[in-house]
Amino acid sequence: MDANDVLAGMPLRIFAYGFALFFCSLIAHVLVWRHNTPRASTLSLVWIFLVIPAGFFLSAIAGFLPRLGCLSWSRMAILEVWLLHFSLSSAYLASYPAARAVSPSLDILLMIASAPEQKLSERDIEDRYRKMRVVGARIDDLMQYRLIRDKGGLFVLSPVAQAIVRVFILYRRMLGLPIGGG
Amino acid sequence: MTEQVCLIMLLLSPAVIIPVHIGMSRIWREVTPQLVAARAVGFSIALVFVVAVAAAVQENETFGRVAPVLAYCLIVVSLIGYTYFHFFNMSETARRIRILYEIHSAGSLAPRQLEQLYRYTDITGARLKRLLALKQVKKEGDMYMLDGKLLFFVAVLVWRWRKIIALDDRTRDDGQ
Q1: pLDDT value at residue A66
Q2: Whole-prediction pTM
Q3: CB A180 to CB B98 under 8 A?
């Protein structure tokens, strides 16, 4: 394939395939979630949006899959489709925690909007949070992902969790910021 | 050639955003961290896009040929920037990261100590302060009211998406 052909004709097909693959992952996600939300939901999302499609793209690049139109493309074109799919998927994965929890900041806005006179005091907002298992639910979650474990009634970090914390400490130090307030 | 330059810039874009963010974060110490991160992301997107345009100009590409490549470049770099902003925000606000950090600092913690470290006033106070700084709420007396519409619009979209993927109220306090 001539390089000029790639430049002239491919990008629109790259958009089409990149978005189509992302929507395939999104539909799979909606179907699985509507059937039964997985307990390890973030890990399941990583499989649906990143791992399975990455396997597909690697197979396409290696030429293992039968020709399905796009598979006769150059490796660069396949890389471009993958990058579009990957960036769309990453953006969705980054947004998912907010949907899963209704992030407190967004939740506060909804609370204010649904209040009788569309105004609330800080005390009213705090009272609502007191009713939620804000910390307990996250501890359960961290234990489920084996990031923390119970050692004689005390929580300790797993080696993976130690590595995650060190990465965040280093990152925040590079930015010249203290660890976030949570 | 423009396409290759675009692809290389896109693959390198996280390596552009992080140093830009580090520099800006150290210069604008008095500005809200989220606003600094947003500025760093915006600047990096512009930088990657300008390099792609410069490559197109250098190659004397026609607009018809180069427009889809530049559009692709802009979409992908914006999505990467958006993802990076969320990564930063996670380091700033995520409760799970904070819990891990507290256990890391102490070596080990009892469940009760962890609950005590995490006061509800911290959770709501920090967020209300941020929403005020971002002009998404305003304060009259001791009452908070909606101000900007952007985050409220996002909140409504998120709430609707929760309905589509059938996340019920049991998982409301189970995230970030």
Answers
A1: 58
A2: 0.81
A3: yes
